[in-house]
Amino acid sequence: MTDSSPTSTPESTRVYGGVSAEQRREERRQRLIDAGLQLFGTRGVAAVSIVDICAEAKLIKRYFYESFTSIDQLAAAVFEQVTDRLVERVVPAIVAGGGQDPRPALTAYVTGALADPRVARLLAVEGRTGALARYGAGFATRAVELWFGFSPAVEGQDEAGLRLRAYAFAGALTEIVLAWHDGVLELTVEQVIDELVDIFKKLVP
Amino acid sequence: MTDSSPTSTPESTRVYGGVSAEQRREERRQRLIDAGLQLFGTRGVAAVSIVDICAEAKLIKRYFYESFTSIDQLAAAVFEQVTDRLVERVVPAIVAGGGQDPRPALTAYVTGALADPRVARLLAVEGRTGALARYGAGFATRAVELWFGFSPAVEGQDEAGLRLRAYAFAGALTEIVLAWHDGVLELTVEQVIDELVDIFKKLVP
DNA sequence: ACGATCTGATACCGTCGAGTGTCAAATATG
DNA sequence: CATATTTGACACTCGACGGTATCAGATCGT
Asked: How far apart are CA B194 and CA B185, in angstroms?
């Protein structure tokens, strides 16, 4: 049975253009994710088609289906990558704060999310709609729960009330970032962070 | 020129089924808006077609175009009606609070928005996407600005900081309402309102 | 150089929704 | 009753998109 390869897909196993098959597939996948961030973060997930993604990524449809099966799956991958990168920045900052000082974490989050309006929109708005809704009520909520996971457990305290405060702060954080990008807040990043630190301390005593 | 009516649209001017032409058109329009609230508030605006609306409203397509020209226009009408009704409830409550006590206004808002999850989703999530985005960054923001319009002007104070606090509270309010509907907050309406009053007083000193 | 395979452009088909038109039944008017 | 209008059910065209296939040119392995 030397002829173990029937007339099926070539499977992509050869070096091409100097890069391996695996690398090429990964690069294409990343270009699709980049295109997704660009289009999802500006037009919104619902207003983007597979053809749009391919045009933005300068790839043909075949390579979309090479890595994803639907727009929603791509959106999930984009969301996941964006959140992962943010977590990579925020977690060390939380550790730096030692579960006491919220400033490092808030600085990391704000500079990470404020820097790119596409990321902000993806996290705050698109994260609640369609197939992304399964990822939980926005990223800010997860970030706050992350914080609570690192902060010392408060014994016997008002659990439900504490949880409500967490959601409150998450919502405040999200709304402020969106307002900032809308240009209605005439404050520097430092001033915004100062206010956030103050709000955090007031909300989570 | 007695023959002033060419072979155009019948224009609907006759009594039918006991109701006037004007009333019939208004009833159909309202049924479309009701269908819009139901479908937009559950599936989201982007996932609803004109055919869906007509099926839900039990009307044929002709009558959709009688009152609206696109899904987005219907969504705007639904959004407008929902916000108008909420304003009708909240404004008297603000007046009742005399610009000092936020409790009446918060009670009116929460019972008005918490009562119907479709309204909550429409205001908090759908209000930021697609054609609804032009209505401003969610209804909560407008509600807070409404509050500030009624509250006594604070002379020479940190305008930008105050504005940031308003957005912060609006975001907190929105997030809490959404979390409530998701069932993750095991609190009574009264407890939620108590917390909101407390948060408001802390955020807007 | 030659065959295998990788890539890009394009064509093709089926489906779905927007928007318009047709026709018969129901109802009002004279 | 006879005619005009209103209404509902349905058919139709057109374009966009999802998904698949075809084909020529580029690149690699031998």
From this structure: 14
Phi-psi region of B12 (alpha: psi -120 to 50; beta: other; left: phi over 0): left
Tell whether B166 lies on the interface with A, counting CB pairs under 8 A: no
SS3 B1: coil
Q: Which nucleotide is nearest, taking the CA of residue A63 and each C1'?
A: C7
Q: How far apart are CA A160 and CA B4, in angstroms?
A: 70
CA distance A204 to B58: 50
Buried b (16+ CB within 10 A) or exposed e, A46-63: bebeeebbbebbebeeeb
Output the pLDDT for position B204: 83
Question: What's the length of chain A?
Answer: 205
Q: How open is the CA angle B180-B186-B189, to the nearest 5 degrees?
A: 65
- Whether residue B174 contacts residue A171, with contact meaning beta carbons closer than 8 Å, is answered with yes
Rounded to an integer, the average pLDDT of A170-198 is: 94
Q: Residue A119, Cα to own-chain centre: how many angstroms?
A: 6
Half-sphere exposure for A62 (CA within 13 Å, toward CB): 3
Query: What is the pTM assigned to this prediction?
Result: 0.91
The one-character DSSP state at B46 is G
Q: Kindly state the average pLDDT of the residues B162-166.
A: 91
**Mean pLDDT (chain B, rounded):** 88
B44-97 pLDDT tens trace: 999 999 999 999 999 999 999 999 999 999 999 999 999 999 999 999 999 998
Taking the Cβ of residue A43 and every Cβ of chain B, the question of whether any pair is shorter than 8 Å is answered with no
Task: Verify if strand C has an atom below 7 Å from the CB of A3.
Answer: no
Q: A10 falls in which pLDDT band (50, 70, 90)?
A: low
Coil/strand/helix, residue A99:
coil
Coil/strand/helix, residue A19: strand
